[in-house]
Amino acid sequence: MSELFSLSIVVPVWMESASIVATLEALQPLRTAGHELIVVDAGSTDGTAKLAQPLADRVVQSGKGRAVQMNAGASVARPAVKGNLLLFLHADTRLPSSALSELSKFVHSDNAWGRFDVRLSGRGVMFRVIAWFMNQRSRLTGICTGDQALFVRREVFEALGGFEPLPIMEDIEFTRRLGLISRPFCIREPVTTDSRRWEQGGTWRTIFLMWRLRWRYWRGDSPENLVHAYRSDVRNGKE
């Protein structure tokens, strides 16, 4: 199947000097294939941007917040002669080696957007269980999170006005709007996301925190309240 499409990978970063080189080195085969890599730094003071410079096509500075950063990256993505895709990749997530061939299938589909399945880097059985539930949730609801490497046709992204500049839940809000256009294209070959969030915060505690925040979001609580609750929980072990 032909891979005649242009891919712009947008990686939002902040204070990622310890891992940014490994993250971007893993994406170099895609640059070699002619695709574009854009790093959007939110004012890191640890040298993240400098380390990223030789490994990216563009390093952009923006305000803080993944929504703001991802919109900034999309706004400078180069125009394409043929199909143009935007892929938003967290700095702690790795694409599978088959990413381009799988995305080529998406290009030839009628879907407006899609996401990958996910697996977590941790070796414990619990991490496989968490990933299974994340993937099943996405299949049932059509909603995905940033850990699943969201990709979208550029014209659709622009028509929807990109991400709402929310401090949290920007991925869920955006995929809810995308879901009004089409179901997501699911790539079952998973991305691998670092499990450190669960390891550092405690597996069960992190699970309950994220589900509690999502439940409050679905009930209409504001993202500003949710991000305050998230930060309070991370700092103090309680809201």
Overall description:
43% of the residues lie in helices and 19% in strands. It has helices at 20-25, 28-32, 48-52, 66-75, 99-107, 125-141, 154-159, 170-178, 196-201, 203-218, 223-236; strands at 6-13, 36-41, 58-61, 84-88, 93-94, 113-120, 151-153, 185-193. An 8-stranded mixed beta sheet has the order 3-2-1-4-7-6-8-5. It has 239 residues and is α/β, with parallel strands linked by helices. Strand 2, helix 3 and strand 3 (58-61) form a beta-alpha-beta unit. It contains 11 helices and 8 strands. Helix 10 (203-218) packs antiparallel against helix 11 (223-236). It is found in: Cell membrane. This is TIGR04283 family arsenosugar biosynthesis glycosyltransferase. Residues 8-157 form the Glycosyltransferase 2-like domain.
Estimated radius of gyration: 17 Å
Mean pLDDT across all residues, rounded?
Answer: 87
- What is the terminal separation in angstroms? 51 Å
CATH superfamily of the largest domain: Spore Coat Polysaccharide Biosynthesis Protein SpsA, Chain A
Structural class by secondary-structure content: alpha/beta
Order of helices and strands: EHHEHEHEEHEHEHHEHHH
Helix content: 40-55%
CATH architecture assignment name of the largest domain? Alpha-Beta Complex
- Approximately how much beta-strand content do the residues carry? 15-25%
Highest-level CATH class of the largest domain: Alpha Beta
**Molecular shape:** globular
Named CATH topology of the largest domain: Spore Coat Polysaccharide Biosynthesis Protein SpsA, Chain A
Total count of domains: 2
**Strand line-up of the largest beta sheet:** 3-2-1-4-7-6-8-5
Strand segment count: 8
| Biggest sheet layout | 8 strands, mixed
Number of helices: 11
